[in-house]
């Protein structure tokens, strides 16, 4: 690090921020606003604020507005509270740069309430947002606004309209890749790309900026412009493009640089100085991890395996990225794509064609939509190839590894072992390459054996989860029920899983919870009764299994043993059959033994018809030594 002082400074900055976090100073996590302001908001949630409109969008239920440079107004005094996201009661016509006075209910941004849940609090802290304002009404607003930002917004809407006309049903993917607009992207399509390990192409990243920037640079040079004019115009265009698409972290670290490590260190320090919360942000960690993996780790690993050909080096680069980002992926998502190592060899080289055709179609679309449709055809063909690859990947239960969320000490030890392996790779590159003698070959074999052992140990360690005791997790599903059970022998059962107040429960609650616990196989799913607040998430989960959208699998679906089967019962059984899950029924007297855990079904009776689903709900008792737990569903008091 002495040769690269910027790297040393970056390391010290990260270390100091981490120490401050452990000391309780809310720089990375928590609320950095003054304590007196926090207490006042908590005591008086109904408040008035003023701020500058940064962005406005329509959500499913209301209009959402992002305010920056926001102040809390109390007794003619103003207290700065950073940025705020407000949800309006009625739609207002707002433009970026307008100043607004808003009254509503301030509420602290909530953190995750379930294992593996999305951490909204940390996500918004990176954007200096610590409060939402609900049921907001605008009391006053200025007529002045930012013409520049409104022009960018209008241009983005025009580009989106062109893509919708030129690309048809494929427009949402092009909007995500070119404009950073993901609101209309099909959730199932996103899940397919994630399962296949190529979801990164759907986000504006350094790869996109590099491809478009270098393409524009080469095009300008061919028109007769010199290196410097072409370079400056390309840089200016890419800066405007970054503003147009939102300027995410991944776009900040794009470009070709002479000293990658120093440039990354400077970029990281600039980002963390502006928002320290990024240190615990998945996008920040994955973006820098990918660049370090491709630019630093891959070189050492290539020397480690003596990679020669171009394809082999590309494969090793993909492996290096996976190794560097492995703990981050497991920490935030609970799984990593294994098959993505191979699919990226096909997808990444062709991504430039998709971006090039899409961008050209947008430019042509300002003059001729038919010409835009023609130009974008090759890119649409490639997208269909990508989709076919994703569907093929989804058919294999081994396409991903669900390793679960590692603890901090596991992550630390893993990176120590990986760093050791990379140091040995550098040693091989500098001292054991070239002409081979008998002594060099012996030392090379020893170095490879030791490095391989350390690497395997690190991977096994980061995916290790201690078992040996009974674990019961009551999931927060809002109005509904969902309980996850792990036995001492690492067998897993799900009892109900539905909600009447939360939509997409399978995708946002059940799957993340299972993945965070390292659960890729459910031994059994018990259904107490067929009300939606007990089965909606289970049905989604079974459909995902049947459609190849997850590698989580299940052995049995246990339904109440009713003589008459309502429609919801039949639909669940059908979804289970498509997913390859065996359907059995449970009634009074049935028992299931798993390790030292015993499940006893106490109800319904053998002749229960199932007309009253609540009264005929399946009631179970779990016994583990002296511990007993009763699962009653929604059965009545009698």
Keywords:
single chain, 6-stranded mixed beta sheet, 19 helices, alpha+beta, globular, 638 residues
Q: In a few lines, what is going on in this structure?
A:
The chain is 50% helix and 19% strand. The longest helix is centred in the middle third of the chain and has 26 residues, at 340-365.
What does this structure look like?
The chain has helices at 5-22, 35-43, 120-125, 147-167, 171-179, 187-196, 206-222, 227-245, 249-252, 260-274, 282-305, 310-333, 340-365, 369-394, 408-432, 438-462, 505-516, 532-546, 567-578; strands at 46-58, 63-74, 77-80, 83-88, 99-108, 129-141, 335-337, 400-402, 471-474, 480-486, 492-499, 521-526, 553-560, 582-586, 591-594, 597-603, 619-624, 627-631. The protein has 638 residues and is an alpha+beta fold. A six-stranded mixed beta sheet has the order 9-10-11-12-13-14. Strand 1 and strand 2 form a beta hairpin. The longest helix has 26 residues, at 340-365. It is globular and about 85 Å long. The model has no long low-confidence stretch (mean pLDDT 87).
